[in-house]
Write a structure and sequence with these properties.
With 410 residues, this protein is an alpha/beta fold. The chain has 15 helices and 14 strands.
Amino acid sequence: MRILFVSSTFPETPEESLDWIGEFTKTIVEKGHKVMVLASHTAGTQKEQVFNKMKIKRFQYFWPSSLQKVAYGEGIAENTKKSLLAKTQLLLYVISNTFAVRKAVKEFKPDIVQALWSFPQGWAAALIKKEFGFPLAIHLFGAEVYLAKNYGMPSLARWPTKHAELVTANSQATKEAALEIGIKKSMKILFYGGIDTKKFNPKNSGKKLRKELGLEKEPMIFALGRIVERKGFIYLVRAMPLILKKFPKAKLVIGSTGPEKEKIEKEANKLKVEKSVIFAGRIPNNSLTEYYAACSVFCLPAIVDSRGETEGGQGVVIGEAMATGKPVVASDIGGIPDAVKHNLNGLLVEQKNPKQLANAICKILSDKKLSERLSKAGRNFDEKELSYETLAGKFIAEYEKVLSAGKESK
């Protein structure tokens, strides 16, 4: 099978660790299929490369390339909110993407085109589909659906799906949001991307990192993700005074950075827990395994933010923590409950509730048997449901159904 993936981003250099898009497409290739990836260009990258037997093509949408602001960084949604230049470039981006899809289809002659996100990638693919008639698959991540809903422009996410043979959503929450804006296509829930269960595993050691952080046997609570409102990190900081009453030497380590960092630092100072909160900054991919391995519990305190947005997917970070054999505490919102089953492979709490967060974390820290049971169940869930191998197989099966149905209709 020949599959063209249309994405906004892709790892910028061959030496860079592959992100979830790179790892997922790599697994598709390993299963014997031909793959081309079309992604946005960004300054300093080659426009054509070969990664793991995949041809990567990048389209430029603005000149000079150093002023391209739509993709990469914080993502299209955040970039266009914060940057006037990114906002003004969006139409150029869609036009350039459309012509790039046309060129890629003519060159690669795919059996099926997979658009990641209904807008803008789905739009570009759907427009070109009218000329070439290829089967189209669109995957909804949630962000584009919430944005279309919040800005009163449901057609942004809805129109491309009308022209797709396959529409998938990354969670039940995304599917429900899609139905609310009028997407009527039958949708299958498939977590896109996957977890590298070989890289993230219980045998990884975090001893070196613990030593660097000045931790010996102290409990370490780890949270990872861009520090934005919807991640809910401020509520985790507000839970720390309660956690410290039971575990005075506990440390909260927050990975990454973002616009809410200063606000959360001020909150930690206000609550006088700043010595127990460590901001680790952006963590390199090759160091992530150590952070997960070093922690006692992983937490994703996500919320529905002031714009009505939340975690559309199950959270890759949750999967990585589970694969490492760590117990998870997370909010019972968005796509998270699709992965975390309360008291089976993790603990779910009410969003924006520091007391429940503290109670759940303390429960795990004080009950070794519970911690081990949740950890084992989380690892098993990852291997059966979220590994790249499993998910690639599920998507391939869906593509084959589409192609088979197309042959029967002729």
